[in-house]
Specification:
2 helices; alpha+beta; 107 residues; globular
Length: 107
């Protein structure tokens, strides 16, 4: 049982560090309004639970899609996070300058 928890925690830490590296420096990127198309926290047989959010946004009239994943230790926490992103909900994303197809959900 202890090894199982260590596996979950190790994956959680890996995902947190990866997200940090991906979002580092994005605080000054321009923003756009995005709309949630779906969200959830699928069950896993192993590894840490991950809250998932899928969304669309427009830049200069062109439609883009994006996704956001946030890791959790407890499945219930991931479900609660995903509930904040109900389909149809609008929120703000940051866009990589010069590459509007690259978006980040600010935390």
């Amino acid at each position: 049982m202890g090894g199982w928890f260590v596996d979950i925690f190790a994956e959680y830490l890996f995902r947190v560090v990866t997200r940090f590296i991906k979002t580092r420096g994005s605080g000054s990127w321009p923003t756009a309004k995005a709309t949630v198309t779906s969200s959830g926290c699928p069950g896993t047989a192993y590894g840490c639970p991950v809250g998932e959010v899928y969304y669309t946004y427009r830049v200069d009239g062109e439609l883009y899609t994006g996704s956001h994943e946030k890791p959790f230790i407890l499945h219930n926490s991931g479900e609660n996070y995903a509930r904040h992103f109900a389909p149809g909900t609008d929120f703000i994303v940051r866009l990589k300058p010069g590459q509007p197809s690259v978006s980040i959900v600010p935390e």
